Fold each of these.
Amino acid sequence: MTTADEVIEVARRSRSAAIGLARLPRAKKDAALQAMADALVAATDDVLKANADDLARGRDNGMAEGMLDRLALDEKRVAAMADGLRQVAGLPDPVGEVVRGSTLPNGLQLRQVRVPLGVVGIIYEARPNVTVDAAGLCIKSGNAVLLRGSSSARSSNAALVDVLAAAGSAAGLPDYAVQLVPGVDHESTKHLMRARGHVDVLIPRGGAGLIRSVVEESTVPVIETGVGNCHVYVDADADLDMALDITINAKVQRPSVCNAAETLLVHRAVADEFLPRVLAALHDNGVTVHGDDAVTKAASAHDVGGVVPVTDDDWAAEYNSLDLAVGVVDSLDDAIGHIRRWGSGHTEAIVTRSLDASQAFVLGLDSAAVMVNASTRFTDGEQFGFGAEIGISTQKLHARGPMGLPELTSTTWVVHGDGHVRS
Amino acid sequence: MTTADEVIEVARRSRSAAIGLARLPRAKKDAALQAMADALVAATDDVLKANADDLARGRDNGMAEGMLDRLALDEKRVAAMADGLRQVAGLPDPVGEVVRGSTLPNGLQLRQVRVPLGVVGIIYEARPNVTVDAAGLCIKSGNAVLLRGSSSARSSNAALVDVLAAAGSAAGLPDYAVQLVPGVDHESTKHLMRARGHVDVLIPRGGAGLIRSVVEESTVPVIETGVGNCHVYVDADADLDMALDITINAKVQRPSVCNAAETLLVHRAVADEFLPRVLAALHDNGVTVHGDDAVTKAASAHDVGGVVPVTDDDWAAEYNSLDLAVGVVDSLDDAIGHIRRWGSGHTEAIVTRSLDASQAFVLGLDSAAVMVNASTRFTDGEQFGFGAEIGISTQKLHARGPMGLPELTSTTWVVHGDGHVRS
C-alpha cells in the first residue's frame, strides 16, 4: 500500500523542479520539448513493449475491446504523441505575460504577471497519450507535473515518463520536472488528493465517477473537467436545414466526446415539420432516440424508426454513445429551464434566425459555452485556436471552457516603489 | 440543529435570485445599492439595538475587549457601511466585459464574456461590517450572496440583512438576493460547505483556523484568503533609511491586518549598521522582537531593548500584533529560501538599490505580491485602485492577491456561427 510519505516525498521533488522551471526562458523549455519528442520516437520499441504488457494484462482481466483500443499504442500513435510535443513547443509561452498594469497616483508601479501554478497533478484514465500531452503542456507553462494514470496503463506510463524525464533532464530541465505518482492503488490517489501545499492544483481527466470522487475527496484545489450533457435547441425561428445539419453533426460526428450533443429540444411550433426529418436522419445514422410523447407520436405517424420512451435518467445522461434524448418544448424559456435543470454546464447550441431568441438564450443559460447556429462540437481548445488543450473546465472558478496554456498559470503582483510607505 | 435540507432550501432561493441578478443592467444594480445605503442609515436605531443584544451576550460570555470592539457598531460605523455601498455603486460593472474575442479562420465568432459566479457564500468572523461589504460587492457583480457570519454577531447580522434584503427587493432586485444561512451552529456551516452545485464558491474571511477548516471540509470550491506571514528583506545594497521606514511602516502602521510584516530578514553585510537602528526604532514603537543569535548580540551590544529568542513557531507565525521575528541571512538566496520555507505566500518586500537583486527576489519567490522598495501594507484592493475588496487571495487558482469585482465573476464563451459544423 502506498504511504502518504512516499507521495509527499515525490511531490517535494516536484516542488524543487517547479522552482527551477519557473525561471526557465521559453527557448530552453522549447528545446527540451523538442528533445523529448525526438527521444520518444527513438524509444518507440521500448514504449510498445511496455504497452504490450498492459494490453496482455488487460486481456487477462477481461478488459472490453473499446478500452483495449484506447490503451493500445502503435508506431503511428507514438509518433503522434511526439508531434504533439513539437506543436506545444511552437506555442507562445504564457509565463511572464503582463496581464494588467498601472502607475498609481502615489507613483507605485503595479504589474500583474503570469507565473506558473507550480506543481500540477493530473489524475486520468486509460489513454497513455494523456501522459505525454499533459507533460508537454505543463513543462511549456513552467509547471512540474505529477501524473497519476490508470493502473491498467502503468507499464506504458512508466516507459513514457522514463523517456520524457531523461530527455528533459539531458536537455536542461530540472530533474523531477515530469514524475509519476508512486503506486497504482487507491491510496496513492488518496494521498495525492490530500497533498495540499505540496500540489497546487489537481486536474482530473476521465469519466464522471472519477471526477466526482476527486472533487469530493481532494483538499488540493481541483479544476473540474469534461462532463458534458450538451443540448441543441431548435427554435421556432430556426432554419430547419441548418438545424438538421447541426443536430446530426453534434450527435454523430464523434459521439464519445464531452462536446457531443446528448439532448435535442425542439420548439413546438416547428416540431411537426422538423421531427420527421431529424428522426429519419438520426435513424439513418444509427442513433437510438429516447423521446417524449410528442416525439414518439411523430416517429410512429411518419414511420421513421422506433423511439425509446425518455426517462429522467436520459435527460441527465452523458451517453457518450449513439443515443440522443429528444423532447418538444413550448417556448424558449422552457428550453432554458430544461437545460438549467438537466444540463452539466458544458455547451449548449441554439439554432435560430431571431436575434432576440439568440440573445435570450445566451443570457438565460449558465454554461461554459453557448453556440448560436453552430455545432456543440466546437467547444475545444484546438478549434478555439489555443493550439492545445489540457481539458475543458465545467466549473466557474479559474478557468471555464477549453483550457490552454494560460489556464495553467497563476499571476503575481510585482510592485515597484521608491521607499513608499502607507500613511 | 440546522439540517442540510434547511440550508439547501435557502441556497435554492439564492439560485433563483442569481438567475435574475445575472440579467440586471448596471443602472438597476446601482439604484438598488443606493436604496440599500439609504435604508441602512434610516434603520440605524434598529441595527444598534440588535448590536446591543450581541454586545450584551458577548460580555456575558466573557468576550475579550478587542473582540467586543470589533463587534460594536455606532452611528458612525453604520454610516460608513452605507458609504461603502454607495462607493461600490460608483464602480464599473464587471459583468458583460468582453475579456477576449476573435474570428476563427472558419468564420466562427468567439467572445469570452464576464458573467456572475452565481451564488457566493461568505463565511466570516465577528465584524458585522463584512455583512454589508460582502452583500454590496456580490450584488454589484450580479451574484446572490449567502452570508454565514459569526454566531456572536447574529442579531446584528440579522438586522442588517433584513434591511438590505427589504430595500433591495423594493428597489427591483430579485427576492433572496441577500440571505443569511439559517442557523448559527456548526452544522449550518457544514451543510453550506457541502452544498456543491447549489453554491458556486465559498470565501472564508477570518483567522487561520477558520480558513483551514473551510479548505479541509468544503466540497464547494473555495477561495483561500488572508493568512499573511509577510516578510521584509533588507538587502546588502539597501538604502538603510528607506529600509528603516519601510520596516516600521510594515510592522507598526496597522499590526492587526494580513499585509503587516511579521518577519524582518537582514543581509549580514549591513547587519552591523542596520540592526542597532532598526531595533531601537522597533523598541520605541513598542514592538517585541523575536531575534536570532546575531540579533540578540546586536541588541545587547548596543543596548537597544530586550530580544526574545526566536523559535520555528515565530518564523511561521502570523502575529497580527506588535511582535516581529528578526533574523540575519548570509545572502539573497538564503532570504528567498527562508521565505519559501516559512512564508504564507501573501506579500514580501525587498529593500535594495540593486536591479539584479530586485529581479532575483521577484523571480525567486512564489507569493501573491512582491514589493520592491515599498511597504507590504500596499497589498490591498483600495490601494491597488480596485475601489473595493472582498479579500486577499493567497491561493493560486482563479484570483491571487487583492480581489475586486472582476474576481467575483466567471466567464462564458459565446460563439456565433452560420450553420457551422465540424468535419
Amino acid sequence: MSDFWSSFPGMDTALSAVSEYIRTATASSNPIIQDALSELFEHQGKMLRPGMLILASQFGNPDPKRIYPLAAAIELLHTATLIHDDVIDDSPVRRGLPAVHMRYGKKDAVLIGDFLLSRCFLVAAEYTTPQNAIHLGKAISAICAMELDQDADRFKPSLSVRNYLKKIIGKTALLFSLACHVGAAEAKAPPQVTERLRRIGYNIGMAFQIIDDILDYTGNERELKKPIGNDLRSGLVTLPLICALRQDREEKLLPLVQTDRFPYSDIPTLLSLTQQLGGIAEARRYAQLYTERALREIAQIPQGVAKQNMEQLAKKLLIRTY
Amino acid sequence: MSDFWSSFPGMDTALSAVSEYIRTATASSNPIIQDALSELFEHQGKMLRPGMLILASQFGNPDPKRIYPLAAAIELLHTATLIHDDVIDDSPVRRGLPAVHMRYGKKDAVLIGDFLLSRCFLVAAEYTTPQNAIHLGKAISAICAMELDQDADRFKPSLSVRNYLKKIIGKTALLFSLACHVGAAEAKAPPQVTERLRRIGYNIGMAFQIIDDILDYTGNERELKKPIGNDLRSGLVTLPLICALRQDREEKLLPLVQTDRFPYSDIPTLLSLTQQLGGIAEARRYAQLYTERALREIAQIPQGVAKQNMEQLAKKLLIRTY
C-alpha cells in the first residue's frame, strides 16, 4: 500500500480491512475478472476516497463493520470509473501498469467496469442505509452527466476557467464530497458537521484535481508512475494551459492549440510554454484557494483528533508531488 | 407502445405508468443524455421485463407506488446492458434506430450506459427493500461475468449446446428470473410462490432467448426492425447453428465456420444450410422444452387471474414472430 497515510494513526490497519472487503466483494469465478482485478487492486493507489470516508466517519461513532464496506464501495466505484475512463480516453497506462483495456480489450474493460459498478451497489445495499445508497446513485449519475459534458468539449481549447472548474466537479470533487458525506452520515455525526464535511470533501477534491492536472505538466514520471503530458496528448485542456493562454499576449502558445494542429503539436514545447507563461503558478493559486476554503470549514468544527486529521489531509494533498 | 400486451387486461395502463417513472428517472439537464434517451424510450420495445415483474407482483398484494418504479428499474438496467452490448458487439441497429454508439460515439455510449445503471440503482434504493436491491446488484454482477465468458468464446464455433445454454442464462434468463423474483417479493407473495416464480422467469427467459436467436435466422426483418443474420455477422454462434453442426455429416456447414473464414462466410448460405440441416427445428424443440418447464411450474400455483396471465405469457412468447 502507498505510504501516503503513514502519518495518520490507525489508517493503515483500517485501509487493509477495506482492501479485504474489496477482495471479497470482487471475488468471481470468472478468470478474466479475477485476473484483471487482483492485479489492479494489488497495485492500489493511495486509496484516498476510502481514507477520506473513514476520516469523515470519525466525526461520529463509526461502526467498522459498516464503515469499511462503505469505504470499499467508494473505491469500487472509483475503480470502475477509472477503467471506463481509460477506455474512453484511450489511456495506455494506469498505476504503472497497462490499462485494463490494453490487456483485455475494450469490450472486456467495459464489462469489468460494469461488474465493479454492480458490486459497489451490492456492497452499498448490503451494508449501508437506503439513504446513503441513494446518495451513491445520485453521485454516479451526476458524474456520468458531467463526463459527457467534458467529452463534448474535447479538442476545444477555448475552454474557460469556469468550464474547467465545472468539469472537475464531476470528475473528482463530487466523489470526494460523497465519501465525506456518507462516511459522516453512516457514523451518525451531527447533521451540521455532516453537511460541513460534504463541503470540505468538495473543496479538497477540487484542490486535489487541480494539483493532479498540474502534476501532468510538472511531475516526475517515476514518482507518478505515468507519463507526463498525458492530458494534452488526449486533447484534454486543463487549468495550467487555460491560465497560460490568458497570459499569452504574444500569441506563442495559442497557435499550437488551434483545433487543426492540437493535439499533434509538440508536447514538450506546450509543457514548457505553459510553465513560462505562468500557467502552473496561476493554477497552483486556484488549488490553494480551494484548500483554504476547506481549512476554513474545518476550523468551524469542534476540536478533536478527527478535526486534526482532516486538516492534515487537506494540507498534505496540496503539497504532494505524486 | 408495442401491442404485445393488449390481451393482458390493465397492462397497457400499468406499463404507461412505468414509462412515466422511466422518463422521470432519466431526466437530466445534459443534452446528450436527454436526446439519446428520449429517442430510445420513445421507441420502446415490448417492455417484457417490466411486464413480467408486474405479472409476478399480482401473486401478492402489489402497491403500484413501489411496483412500477421497480419495474422501471428493471427496464433501465436492461436498456443499459443493451447500450453497452451494442458497443461491445459493434451492432449498428437497435429497435429500428441507429444504436446509441453509432449516433453519439462509443465513448458517450459507455457513459450513457453507466448513467442508466446508476439510475436503475437509484430507483431501486428509493423504492424497494434493501433485500431486493441486493438481488439486483447480484444479478448484474452475474450478468457481466457471464458476458465476459461469452466474449472469450467469440469466433470459436466448436461451442456445445451446454455452453450455449450457460451463456443465455447470463444474457437473458437471469434478468427474467430477477424480474419475477423481485416483483413477487416486493408484493409479499407467499415465499413458495415467489421461489416458483423465480424458476418460471428463468425458464421463460431461456425459451425467449432461444426464440430470439431462431428469429435471427428465420425472422422477417420488417417485423423484427433489425437485419437478420446479425449474430453470425458479429461472430456469435447460437443454438440453430450448433444444432445444425451436429447433423452436418457431409461437412457442408463445418468448413464455412472454421475460424479462418468465419464470420466472413456468405451469410445467406449459412442461414439456409442451418435451416436445411434441421438446426432451426431442433432449436425450437429446446425452446418448447423450457416453455413446458415453465408451464409445469405455473400449474402448481393456485388458480387465479395472475396464474392465467403468466400461462398466457409463456405460451405467447413461444409462438411470437417478432
